[in-house]
Amino acid sequence: MSPDILDESSVIWFGPQHVSAHGWAAKLTIVGDYIVECDPNAGYFHRSAEKCLEFRNFRQGSMILERICMMEAFLAEYPYIAAVEKIVDLEVPERAKIMRTIMMEFNRIHSLQFWWGQFAGELGLFVMLLWPWVDREYSLDAFEELTGSRHTVSYATPGGVKYDFTPKFLAKMETALKLVKDRMPVFNDMLAGSPTFRLRTEGVGHYTAKQALKWGLSGPNIKACGIPMDLRKDDPDPNLAYDLIDWEVPVINNEEHPGESDAFDRLLQRFKEIETSLDIIEKLLPILPEGPIIDPKARSKTNRLPEGEGYGRVEGTRGVTSVWLKTMAKAQTPWRAKIRGPCFASYYSLKHIVPGARFADFPAIFGSLDPYPGWWDR
Amino acid sequence: MSKTPGSASTLARTIINKYPDIESKPLVGNKVELVVPPEMIRDIVSMIDEEVSDALPESLFGVDLTEDKYEVIYIFWSHEGKMLVQLRVSLEGETPEIETVSDIFPGLDWHERETHELYGINFKNHPDLRLLLLPDELEGKFPMRKSFLTDRSRMDETGLARPKPRPKPGGESS
Amino acid sequence: MGFVGNLGDIFRILKHTFRQVFRRPFTYFYPFEDREYPETTRGRHIHIRETCTACAACVRACPVAAIRIDKEDKKFEKDCALYFDYTRCLFCGDCVRACRYEALFHTPIVDLSEGDRDDLIYGPDKITTLDRDPLEWRGRRFR
Q1: Which of A48, A217, A331 is closest, CB to CB, to B170?
Q2: For residue C78, what are the domain limits?
Q3: Distance from A329 to chain B by nearest Cα, in Å?
Q4: Is residue C3 part of a domain?
Q5: Nearest partner of B107 among A320, A349, A323, judged by Cα
Q6: What CATH number corresponds to the domain at position B31?
Q7: Under CATH, to which class is A46-339 assigned?
Q8: CA spacing 20 to 30 A to A273: which of A181, A232, B59, B63?
Q9: Which A residues 301-330 touch B at CB under 8 Å?
């Protein structure tokens, strides 16, 4: 980039009022139609969740966490609970383990349904913005039937889960999942089969697996490069039931560019994620045993925690979600809670992915990484 | 020395063989924790970069231990070795300093910026230490330090008796 | 490929769109018509003073300090008055779970809106009564 090109450049802000920039803004330096520099800005949603957690006790903390990312509320609150359970060594009843896992996968499906709509909407396909969101209502209805809240479920608690499955919930979940399954081929035609969509996403937002690892990308963004990095398989939480069943990590291997991924690969990857989640729920439902759903001693055990450090991790919809917790002796509240959001890395990586792209491709690159502002601002 | 990521104990042994100052904590699962002196952090992180070919820079954050003592913790994850590496660096002083590693792992760039603005830990040679999350008026206040007091007046409105202050650290109940 | 090569894709998409046209609309005429709420819905609370024992478990469980307790205000033998601040409440359900005396419940009323901010602080009169019944209109629920 010689300096005389930069003389012609202009600087514009993408967001925070732009419709597809919901709560974030990036400073773009543009020469003609090409972006030469991207400087993503964070902090529009900063609510200081980490400081808030220092003043909440161990049962209250998860309420704060699930408000970071409404779309995957259960997946967001879970790492905190896992960290608490690691410090106190709580063993969760078998039934609660499986219920947590089912709910987790159901929440992942819901989050990906939302993402379909969001991604298509950012690219201007408003039909596909609304269709998945209508289907998503059925998932939300099922959450409401079980927990009483549509988004922020606050379902798990240290030592188990709060609400038991009812036949009504199971029926509603079946309706929602059947709809997802039925509509998958339709959405596949509408997105992956659409010539307009392919033109806008193929070859856009390219990166290699090595680059992605250096930037800290995880989850579907790196699985699209052909690396089956999935915490559900690699480092399953002892209080989840992923090791009870046989399932395969969804991974895309594009033969045209192995070890790399573009926006279209990441779309296909997320289709596969939904298939895997459906598969896991299908396999877990028959082995759901009868029994208690919460350890009766959990409440008294979590009043005061011993000194220790716990690192709870879970594979979220968007990548590795983790909470690092430090407690002092006889602590009622955590001394330090660090939330690692998956989108912190994917938003940062815009800085490296975007330069060189056309301005019109920016929403496609951004949307395909599936970032959610709550995760980097916390 | 092979380039393939091995188990956590092999990595710990390789690092300790080269730099005998480093202590390692007992392993739980395939997790290794190394206590690193602050001046050696760049050596260790670049060594992890060489030894573990698919190291994912998962997290970097500060911990305030009060009385001007801080810790910086680096977490790396390797998919192939299923291995978690945690580096722990103890720092002291009013404005503690440590070398940046953002050129080795670009993903830690923003984590360092965040730790800088929230804890006041200075990362030397970092290219760009602007504010990331905070508004301008909180610059230099370091809100995640324990000495930064927040407004707790809401708790008085509940009508409950105030909890007695406990001598040991552990935070107030809310 | 060009336009002709894409014709198959385009017709397939048109087929899906065409089917969607003949579907029932999903939306509700909201103020006149409401959806069914399940019994578990975490809406506004109802406080039953007959069974309340003023143990303040709900106040301690609240993560956002939205509940104020007044132990002096007694209507029965050992109850208390609760003030719920719905500008703060998260509807997390922990106060209801913390109550061991069956004195605090959620109701399926979720549309809380007032003209004034202070009206959203539900005092002991408002929190112990339900002022709205779901009405029927043309066989549908109507508020």
Answers
A1: A331
A2: 45-142
A3: 7
A4: no
A5: A349
A6: 3.30.460.80
A7: mainly alpha
A8: B59
A9: 311, 320, 322, 324, 326-330
